[in-house]
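Handoff note, outgoing to incoming analyst
You'll be picking up this chain. Sequence as last confirmed:
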Amino acid sequence: MSNELGTLATALYVGIDDLLRVRPDLRPWRPVIGFTPRVTDAELVTLSVMQALLGFTSEARWLRYAHRHLRHLFR
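Most recent structure output, in case you need it:
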């Protein structure tokens, strides 16, 4: 993975996480009782934006790429 891609992912995550903290109305509603998601809303949006920016149209190819190159950035 290139250093620029890691920087992009970090910058996107920080910006999206800050936005979701300031605007909690943008978060999806979740019931109080239930399981805790493994991925945060900010992580999910970051991965979706990166998929679009990098031009992946195949979900399977994106998941393989993200698993191989971005795994260390996300849980």
